[in-house]
Amino acid sequence: MSAERAVEWSESDLGSRIDELVRILRAAERELQDLTGGQLDAVVGTADGALLLRSAQQRLRESEARQRELASTQVAIFDALPAHIALLDRAGVIVAVNEAWRCFGAANGLAGETFAVAESYLAVCDRAEGEGAGEAHSVSTGIRGVLAGSLPQFALEYPCHGPAEQRWFRLTVTPLDRSRPGGAVVMHVDITARRLAEEEIRRNQKLLKMASRLSRLGGWSYDVQEPRLTLSEELRSLLGVGEGELTVGQSIDQFVVPEQHEEIRHAFEDCVQHGRPYDVDLHMRTSEGREIWTRVIGEAERDAAGRIVRVQGAVQDVSEQLQAREAVRLSEERFRLLANATHDAIWDWGVAAARLWWNDGFVELLGYPQERAETITRRWTDLVHPDDRRRVVGDIVEAFDGDADHWSHECRLRRPDAEYVYVLHRGYAIRDDRGRLIRIVGGMTDLTERHKASERLAEQAALLDAANEAILVKDLDRRIVYWNKGAERIYGWTAEEAI
Length: 499
Description:
Elements (H helix, E strand, L loop, with lengths): L2 H6 L2 H26 L5 E3 L5 E3 L1 H27 L3 E5 L5 E4 L1 H9 L13 H6 L6 H16 L5 E6 L8 E8 L8 E7 L1 H24 L1 E7 L4 E4 L1 H7 L21 H14 L3 E8 L5 E12 L5 E10 L1 H23 L3 E6 L4 E4 L2 H6 L3 H9 L7 H16 L4 E9 L5 E12 L5 E10 L1 H19 L5 E3 L5 E4 L1 H7 L3 H4 L1
Antiparallel strand pairs: 1-2, 3-4, 3-7, 5-6, 6-7, 8-9, 8-12, 10-11, 11-12, 13-14, 13-17, 15-16, 16-17, 18-19
């Protein structure tokens, strides 16, 4: 219908004609769909081109909407990934990067206007110089291998430290389509937390080995199901066993002296069967025949079902500790025997532990009943005569604050009957390598009889001096040992001149 013909028609006629043609088209479309079983999308004429049917148009619009939604979802997922990702074409040129890539570039001054899109990843790696250049060249080789299809995947871990922090990344290159050579995905994953954890584990393992060597401690593990015994390097060294010298099924009880075989076997089997841990002291003999004393512990390990699958534990060489403990025991025993063999009051004050020990001589010296001895000895300075107390306490304080290693003085101590006994009080300070006082050992010797004898001699001397006669005393060598006042008056020589 020509334009001139359309103008001649009225508006209502034109509308009716259009409606009629639309009905004809829809009827024709339905008939074509019926004839083709719904498989027809368009009608192609010889001169007028293709006519796209309405249902096909609708499907096309829905498909385009789904494709746009899928693309938007894929971009959102791409940007949500924490790894730094770049998509390369088959020539190694970057065609797209994700948000993590852009953020890392912006934060580290590597952004540029396009965040490296349209740049050749291969060229950047090939141009690398200086520190890290070798790794960059390895990456370039790996990418080329993946793009060519000769490598199924390439991976490399590398450091990327900043001025204020240490960082490590893992780079992986995977093909976009494994069925044919094409583009590739380059992904950088931050593995700093893992590497720092690994470094911490290595440091701890090194410290653990040092501690094991220092404490002569080694570990062991017994696999119940195989069975198999595994010894740590420290324990193999302790027992004198090489890497592969223990056969399957053997255990460490082969190093235990026969007298304790039954004890360790019972403890081990009880742990394997019932899960009871054990802690025993064992006398062992190494493969070289050296005898050692050890402390052995073991405990069961269960799987998720509660079954015992492994027994593991540790062996510590305590020979030196036992020898030192025995030496201390013998020394303490000798000290106690000597303390009990004397009539002196012996005391031992452990400064750090604030522990004071007295022997039975304290009770004998002062006459306090045994049941009051402990209370009395804790406050023994209260027994010191008031005239002597400041001097006695001062000597002890000087030992604490100064560097004196001993003191000796005479003092008086009160007995339960309020009488005082004279004692010679001696103390010896024991210090550590830093000069700190750790112990004081002392003793008290009864001087009461000596003081009484001195007093009697003084009384007798006073009586002799009061005599008018000259009195002198000679020893067996005829030397004058006494010259009284009467001799001084008669002979004219003083006692100092005559003796």
